[in-house]
Amino acid sequence: GLSTLADHVGTATFVLAPLFRRLEAHVFAAERLHGDDTTVPVLAKGKTATGRIWTYVRDDRPFAGPAPPAAVFYYSRDRTTAHPTEHLARYQGLFQADAYSGYGALYDPSRQPGPILEAGCWSHARRPFFVMADVEAAARRKAQSKGKVAPSVSPIALDIVRRIDALFEIEREISGFTAEQRLTVRKERSVPLVDALHTVMVEQRARLSRGNDIAKAIDYMLKRWDAFTRFLDDGRVCLSNNAAERALRGIALGRKSWLFAGSD
Length: 264
Hints:
The protein is built from 10 helices and 5 strands.
């Protein structure tokens, strides 16, 4: 029955704990980490509560690192800053993640045992621009409204998406190169593109009201410009946090199958 299954899982967890600790040590010995979290429904009295699964991923392959890739996962009942603070208590190095405010304290320069340097995710930043520049989606909206509404495609968003895509094209060419080789290519080809993008965003932002959706997407990047441009100074940094998002894909797909977890 259920108790027998629970005993099996509990025993396996106990036996595998030393292996998990070794895996954990390997992941947190990385020079660069990817981090992300996602929701997981958990059965509670008369409802389901929303827990979180956190992941930290080590993947040195993009900069030709010899260490094997690995990921660790943690569970929490809520999404407070205490959790990533505890998970990363002994870590120092590069951290690729979204702009979740709970990570904020990690980037304090005086933090012990050493600083964590934030690297922004360009895929995350690109999404709102892509939504506003999606010609096919706009055409579908027009068809659904029987032609009464003209497709709303923002030329500003389209321009920004194309500029960001040009950066990703360079990154695809240098994936697997050494950090030094990646940095050389970026200094030569990516820096001028990033400088031009910054100029365009600043100019366009000056013409937009604060509540405008494009203004919000531009502000998201400009306020974190140091994090977004860190890849131009360090060949180990990736342009996106996709490695962590891929690690959570099993959880996202699983939610549809198992609906909720029975307990914490």
